[in-house]
Design goal:
The protein has 318 residues and is an alpha/beta fold. It folds into two domains: 209 residues, 3-Layer(aba) Sandwich (Rossmann fold), CATH 3.40.50; 95 residues, Formyl transferase, C-terminal domain (Methionyl-tRNA Fmet Formyltransferase, Chain A, domain 2). 28% of the residues lie in helices and 27% in strands. The protein is built from eight helices and 17 strands. A seven-stranded mixed sheet has the order 5-2-1-6-7-9-10. Strands 12, 13, 14, 15, 16 and 17 form a six-stranded antiparallel sheet that branches. A hairpin with a 6-residue loop joins strand 16 and strand 17. Belongs to the Fmt family. Its EC number is 2.1.2.9.
Length: 318
């Protein structure tokens, strides 16, 4: 089976590597254009592009696949990409976290299959891993689905479940689901080689949407419950990183434990800040023990180490 692969970040690169290792013929890879990153804002290739080039696979990086784009540059690149797809001998396109919309003109060429990091129809959209943790879901998983024009609405070919551990962050759960998706897409294509697969239409009940994570969401509001804030700290690790201000200084908070004990103190008040008790902060209900923090220009540190250079006794997070 000949497979065109479309994807961009590490989640997708693991799937590409799995398909390549399984012996599938991959004549072409689509990925987003190189982006500026780091302090010098130098252009960096996506994880998918890096893997493809290292293994001699042709890479195409259009700004868009929509030939009707109002931007003439994007429209021209989309037309060129469309012609390249038409000229390529392939059986299926596999898509994983590509980041570009596949228009009808692309979907109509050959079947397109997506690797999605949730139990559809829950958490359709851009940030299913973050939103599952933030919402307090006890499980998630990976769905392999046929693509159509709707946002993650296509019929399902395979689905597997994974428990969300109380200590899981987006970083750890991402790695679990990426490995699962990489295994599942190989299994799915093997079954397709043997014959048609049954596609199950997604149920109408239980649809939720995982909106893209914005940097503005990183700010913690201690007038909310400790349970919710603890989930957000986990959900926003590694991006965008939860944060709060104390005396005008923005502190990143990478880890926390939720404590049930309520307090009469104002939300955000630091109740303890020492080696014996750690950093305990009052919330609307319950309290948070902050376990890993980072000051501007500093490293991520355990609470005890952080306090040596940034005392917090009798302070209040805004």
């Amino acid at each position: 089976m000949k497979v065109i692969f479309a994807g961009t970040p590490e989640f997708a690169a693991l799937a590409l590597a799995s398909l390549h290792a399984a012996g599938f013929d991959i004549p072409l890879v689509l990925t987003q254009p190189d982006r500026p990153a780091g302090r010098g804002l130098q252009l960096h290739a996506s994880a998918v592009k890096q893997y493809a080039l290292a293994h001699g696979i042709e890479v195409l990086q259009p700004l868009s696949l929509r030939m009707d784009s109002a931007d003439p540059v994007r429209a021209e690149q989309a037309r060129a990409a469309h012609e390249r797809l038409l000229a390529t001998d392939y059986d299926v396109m596999v898509v994983a976290a590509y980041g570009l919309i596949l228009p009808r003109s692309t979907l109509d060429i050959k079947p397109c299959i997506n690797i999605h990091g949730s139990l559809l129809p829950r958490w359709r959209g851009a940030a299913p891993i973050h939103r599952a943790i933030e919402a307090g879901d006890v499980e998630t998983g990976v769905t392999i689905m046929q693509m159509e024009e709707g946002l993650d609405t296509g019929p399902m070919l395979m689905i597997e479940r994974v428990a969300i551990d109380a200590a899981d962050t987006t970083a750890t759960l991402h790695d679990t689901l990426a490995a699962l998706g990489a295994r599942m897409i190989v299994a799915t294509l093997r079954k397709m080689e043997a014959g048609p697969l049954e596609a199950v239409v997604q149920p109408e009940a239980g649809v939720t949407y995982a909106a893209k994570i914005g940097k503005e969401e990183a700010r913690l509001d201690f007038s909310q419950s400790a349970q919710l804030l603890g989930r957000r700290i986990r959900a926003f690790n590694p991006f965008p990183g939860a944060q709060a201000q104390v005396n005008g200084v923005t502190i990143k908070i990478w880890g926390a434990e939720t404590l049930d004990a309520d307090t009469l103190a104002l939300p955000g008040q630091v109740l303890a800040a020492d080696a014996a008790h750690g950093i305990v902060v009052a919330c609307k209900s319950g309290t948070l023990r902050l376990t890993e923090l980072q000051k501007p220009g500093g490293k991520r540190l355990p609470a005890a180490e952080f306090l040596k250079g940034f005392p917090l006794a009798e302070q209040r997070f805004d």
